[in-house]
Amino acid sequence: MSSSPQPHSASPADWWAGARPHTWANALAPVIAGTGAAAFQGSASWWRALLALGVAWALIIGVNYANDYSDGIRGTDEDRSGPLRLTGSGIAAPRAVKRAAFLSFAVAGVLGVALSLSSSWWLILVGAGCIAGAWFYTGGSRPYGYRGLGEVAVFVFFGLVAVLGTEYTQAGAASWVGLICAVGVGSISAAVNLANNLRDIPSDAASGKITLAVRIGDAPTRRLFCGLVAVPFVVSLFLAVSATWWALLGLLAVPLGVVGTRPVRRGATGGALIPVLGLTGRAMLVWSVAMFAAFLLA
């Protein structure tokens, strides 16, 4: 008798794994950095920060379930070296995964409306754009994630929009300090996505999923990844000179960045690249917390 999982038998642990907790740093880091930038303006609001955190967290869970669903029904997850996918493995019905994605988007939408009405109503339109961007990354008839634009979207949504949006809802304005932090967070967040696509180059190329990694090839992808991971630390040095020397606290995350890039620099492939996502995410989170502390101390 076969011991393989039966269709539509996903356990709570499988759904938890499908939400991909190792990517949640991409949602937490921009809110922390954006709140720090607002504090630098003397206008941090803890309850607005918590609302923004809820929006970002629900949104990234929705993105992960949406990608699971869309990639699964297209067959691009049938031969991959990463963690088990709910739809592609057959342990969850596609409609259930899609429902989980839209439920997460709904939570993000409700919290986003509340946050927008507490600051500026037009941010509702920005939030709607974020949800649309999350779905059409791999959803719809012409997903932009299949055209090499995934990392650009991550930089924009989980970098520029998330950091500056968080700062704006608390301080009533976006600052140049917030913009520089957004570049740092967006770059390393894009690096997390790029590491995932680096690992999946063989299966993505075979299935016709043309990610940026597939488009530029293995070696350039590794160089780009290392460059993106380095951006936040360059940002720390810049802010130490131009804003506050406390920004040097961001360099505390350098060891995590070095360890996270090591498998990529050494040519690791397949499953050996899986830890890179978590390590890079932790480096991003530590950097954001360090910058938050720096702005409070300043």
UniProtKB/TrEMBL annotation:
Keywords of the record: Cell membrane, Membrane, Menaquinone biosynthesis, Transferase, Transmembrane, Transmembrane helix
Topological type in the membrane: Multi-pass membrane protein
Recorded family membership: Belongs to the MenA family. Type 1 subfamily.
GO biological process: menaquinone biosynthetic process; vitamin K biosynthetic process
PANTHER family: 1,4-DIHYDROXY-2-NAPHTHOATE OCTAPRENYLTRANSFERASE, UBIA PRENYLTRANSFERASE DOMAIN-CONTAINING PROTEIN 1
Pathway where this protein functions: Quinol/quinone metabolism; menaquinone biosynthesis; menaquinol from 1,4-dihydroxy-2-naphthoate: step 1/2
The enzyme's E.C. designation: 2.5.1.74
Record-level Gene Ontology MF annotations: 1,4-dihydroxy-2-naphthoate polyprenyltransferase activity
Protein's name in the database: 1,4-dihydroxy-2-naphthoate octaprenyltransferase
NCBIfam families membership: menA, PRK06080.1-3
A single cellular component GO annotation: plasma membrane
Reaction catalyzed: an all-trans-polyprenyl diphosphate + 1,4-dihydroxy-2-naphthoate + H(+) = a 2-demethylmenaquinol + CO2 + diphosphate
Location(s) in or outside the cell: Cell membrane; Membrane
Function description: Conversion of 1,4-dihydroxy-2-naphthoate (DHNA) to demethylmenaquinone (DMK).
InterPro entries: MenA, UbiA_prenyltransferase, UbiA_sf, UBIAD1
Transmembrane segments annotated in the record for this chain: 46-66, 96-115, 149-168, 174-195, 224-252, 272-297
Record-linked Pfam families: UbiA (PF01040)
Record's keyword annotation contains Cytoplasm: no
